[in-house]
């Protein structure tokens, strides 16, 4: 009987000890959660800002890909062709000049496009930007020619 009561008190003591440990652990977990909900929140913002540029790079890649699909001739011209064709540098036919473009346009769309892609005399291939696709160069040629009276 005394062994039983000893056992009981041991079990009770153990239960109390375990119970208080569990309570302490729960308290600690709750307290750490409260703190961590504030601190790591700030850390997460930092993490986000360090990962954001990577995400932006991916977005940039995608927008480049979509730029290939949706060709913006005006943008291509502004970035690659206007430097010569706006002011008529080195005798480049000026954008919007029907007089200067008329003999060029008379060669036909395909010839003009192939001259722009491959270059002709002082006109550099692809306006000097090898990254431009045939479609992008063609869109720029068509836009410039149409701005000077063509109907491509
Ligand atoms: C470095 C200056 C320069 C840049 C940049 C440039 N061009 Fe030219 N381009 C010229 C010159 C100069 C000529 C006239 C060449 C000639 O007929 O002797 C010309 C002529 C042309 C012609 C007429 C070709 C023909 O057969 O008569 C087309 C079309 C043309 N360029 C399109 C473009 C396009 C599209 C771009 C941009 C992607 C571009 N060019 C960028 C200088 C430039």
Strand content: under 5%
User: What is the highest CATH level, the class of the largest domain?
Assistant: Mainly Alpha
Q: How many DSSP-defined strands?
A: 0
Biggest beta sheet attributes: none
- List the total number of helices: 6
CATH superfamily of the largest domain: Cytochrome c-like domain
Named once each, the bound ligands are: heme C
Helical coverage, percent range:
over 70%
SSE topology string: HHHHHH
This entry's quaternary arrangement is single chain
User: What's the N-to-C terminus distance?
Assistant: 108 Å
CATH fold call of the largest domain: Cytochrome Bc1 Complex, Chain D, domain 2
Averaged pLDDT, please? 82
pLDDT below 50 for ≥5 consecutive residues: which ranges?
A: 57-68
Keywords: Electron transport, Heme, Iron, Membrane, Metal-binding, Transmembrane, Transmembrane helix, Transport
Pfam families: Cytochrome_CBB3
Organism: beta proteobacterium KB13
Domain Cytochrome c: 68-148
Features:
152 residues, mainly alpha, 6 helices, binds heme C, 74% helix
Please explain how this structure is put together.
By secondary structure, the chain is an all-alpha fold. It folds into two domains: 1-70; 73-147, Cytochrome c-like domain (Cytochrome Bc1 Complex, Chain D, domain 2), CATH 1.10.760. 74% of the residues lie in helices and 0% in strands. The longest helix has 68 residues, at 2-69. Residues 80-81, 83-85, 89-93, 104, 107, 112, 115-116, 120-124, 126-128, 132, 137, 140-141 line the site of heme C.
């Amino acid at each position: 009987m005394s062994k039983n009561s000893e056992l009981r008190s041991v079990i009770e003591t153990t239960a109390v000890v375990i119970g208080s440990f569990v309570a302490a652990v729960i308290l600690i977990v709750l307290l750490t959660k409260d703190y961590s909900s504030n601190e790591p929140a700030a850390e997460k913002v930092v993490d986000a800002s360090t990962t954001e540029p990577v995400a932006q790079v991916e977005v940039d890649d995608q927008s480049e890909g979509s730029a290939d699909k949706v060709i913006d001739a005006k943008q291509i011209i502004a970035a690659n062709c206007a430097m010569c064709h706006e002011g008529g540098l080195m005798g480049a036919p000026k954008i919007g000049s029907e007089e200067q473009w008329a003999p060029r346009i008379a060669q036909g769309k395909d010839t003009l496009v192939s001259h722009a892609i491959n270059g002709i005399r002082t006109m550099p291939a692809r306006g000097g930007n090898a990254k431009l696709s045939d479609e992008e160069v063609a869109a720029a040629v068509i836009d410039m020619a149409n701005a000077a009276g063509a109907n491509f």
